[in-house]
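Hi there,

I know you've been waiting on this one. I reran it after we fixed the sequence typo, so this is the corrected version. Both the input and the resulting structure follow.
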Amino acid sequence: METIEEYQVIVDETAVAVKILGGKGITKTYNLTLPKVALATKAFLQHIKQGLIREVSVSTTEIIDPKEIVKLKKKFSERATLLIKAKMPSITSETITLLVNVLMQEMLGLGDIEYLMSDENLEEIVITSSGEPIRVYHKKHGWLETNIQLTNEEQILNYANIIARRVGRQVTTLNPLLDAHLITGDRANAVLFPISTKGHTITVRKFARDPWTITDLIRNKTCSSRVFALIWIAVQYEMNVLISGGTASGKTSFLNVIMPFIPPNHRIVSIEDTRELQLPKFLYWCPLTIRQPNPEGKGEVTMLDLLINSLRMRPDRIVLGEMRKKDQAEVLFEAMHTGHSVYATVHADSIAETIQRLVNPPIEVPQNLLLGVNLNVVMFRDRRRGIRRVFQVGEFLPAAHEGTSGVRPNILYRWKPATDEIVEHSSSLRLYEELSRHTGMTLTAIEKDLAEKTAILDWMTKNNIRHVDKVGEIFRQYYIDPEPIIELTSQGKPATEEAP
């Protein structure tokens, strides 16, 4: 098999080589070169492990708290180093580092899976059973079989228990399902045998360490700077925006990307079932997530609970991860009509389908409330080419015939597959009018503002300003004093360390 790609992954100062192997007519595989530990060394490490268990006490807080786990690792590392040196005085520092890292992964981590967790190119890690190799989803190469296979079902159960303990929960024969967040922010799901008939199963969805930003989506043609400028002006002036799309079309990623458009002095409350949003540091943001019930069925906090509670937190903006049920939609649309700016995602493949999805069960929103939505962005995933695009951008209009109740779509921009471009489809009949009413701007002033915003986004893309906090800083500076940013972009000056 030939090497298609090769790179390194570093875990606690230990570097391991990753090779993507394949070739013509051969299925690609993910090959990890793990540190080799001899049987005698394994026995020695087992002895050191027993010494650590006796000498280092661990509290519940240290296991659960992400900040404390770092201190715990340091404490274990220092004590393990002393124990190894006491037993083997002539050992080299490189070997000590390797042995300590192996111990840390076995005692405080998930063993060999820690190497996979540290690979930023992976999106998903799946353990189906001890009878099959671990599989991963690679950003570039898709699903790959790895050269790592766990020895027995007890080992998988042990990893599931480690994950459960970290979030103060249990996974047992009576409670065979687990949905939890790891310290890193990654989401882990476990299903035990016999519910999973092949054996115990663990699925880890990795949390993006370096999230997508506006410049990334402009550069990879997911969306144009002109459409982003339109969304920017809508978000800036507190319009309500819905993001629609199918499964894995990029709805949440797009929602995350447009959040820096919110002015820094506005209070944001986000509500998610799993924490996915990553916003710039400058935003005034309070993230809330639901809580599953404990084994006795108590302590559950639902999305509806959080949604109702958020209205008492004086939010300027409410962000809902995904709208699924009627009661959630009722509260959300009520919030729109009582002066709160709302941003949410919903499963639908077009603007017309979004309307149908909202007015029919299970969401079933009264049609007259739908006019609270000012802008609807529809995401699309082309599975053959492996690309994601903004498919439609539009608004909801009252029914064409007077005296008829209902809502109809008006598409402002649409994606043209033949040329892979986002083109203008029709003029706005409602959004610009509402912007003018809320801001006092004339149509000419709105067009000028859109042109300035488009120029800023093009300048950011040209200068590769893409880190989430750097992007956030540009928008913060714009809201404090827009003139320096507009001057920089109009003169086409390059971004520097001194520039905002």
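Quick highlight: The CA atoms of residues 323 and 346 lie 5 Å apart.

Best,
R. S.
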